[in-house]
Amino acid sequence: MATKDVRIARDLGPKITGNIVTIMAGKGDGARVFRVQEDLVRSNSPFFEAALAGDWKEAATRTISLDEDDPKACELYIQWLYSGKICTAPVSASASRAITYEEEMRLVKAYCLGDKLQNLLFMDSVATAIMQAFQVSDTNGYTNGSVPSPGHETVNYIWANTPRDTPLRRLILDLHTWYPLEEDSRLTYKDYSQEFLIDLVRSMSKLRPYPREPGPRSYSEAPSRYCHPKKVKS
Asked: pTM higher than 0.90, yes or no?
């Protein structure tokens, strides 16, 4: 049986020595404190490298505040630093592995944190986890016959917190282009980011087939369809 190669070059191993830095994430009762090897965070993030170098306050205290960021996203990032894995799937082996709203939001917030920390490899890992999670959902299927796509709150968070050309937007647009929006009769177009809806229309229009040969279009073949019905004189 073929086995996975577990040997790698010595200089490619994770940094597990050196000073410890403190990362304070979130604020209030939900705040979390993490302590991580300095070499590990600095070698993976230009943000941390800049903060811990030079004459900045963080360099003197060895403490970095991420009070505007989600502690769960920060935890996910640190877990990834040590394991190279995105740890968001259900804990129970018997539970459905289809993506949940909670996991959606945790993943997209982690992606946005990765953008702030300027860690492209982490962002790509999160995007891969999102793709894998929705593939699982696609395989499992749902009783109403639809395949889940990211919910409106997830979509709105992404469009409010990412630049226009971010790859995550392209991924979410592709998911919504091929799969239906969430089926909730209470939702209207007002519940979605208007910028997202415009982007979605553009994305879907690219799938519309063009006529192979020049000729009359369906709208020109039946013009009465687009006019008010004529009243019949009695």
From this structure: no
